[in-house]
Amino acid sequence: MAISLEQAITSIVSIFQNYARCSGDEHKLCQTELKELLQKELPTWTPTEFRECDYNKFMSVLDTNKDHEVDFVEYMRSLACLCIYCHEYFKDCPPKPLCSQ
Hints:
By secondary structure, the chain is mainly alpha-helical. Helices cover 57% and strands 4% of the residues.
């Protein structure tokens, strides 16, 4: 049985490949695939009022090599930044109480 981090890594890679395959190139996401990934995989973090121009801006930020697609490295950079942001945001929250066993 895989442990949590192994499962997370497997999920991250599989999700990217599943969405990238839609256009035939499993190594890159076009804007339509990126939009669908965000809407389906991060629904509570993707504002419902996002307009097409918002997705255009998001795509241009992620697409660091400006080839109009998001490759796996660009995708991973965005996830790493999201993880760092979440860590910083929650690090000062009170810790969960320990189990009383």
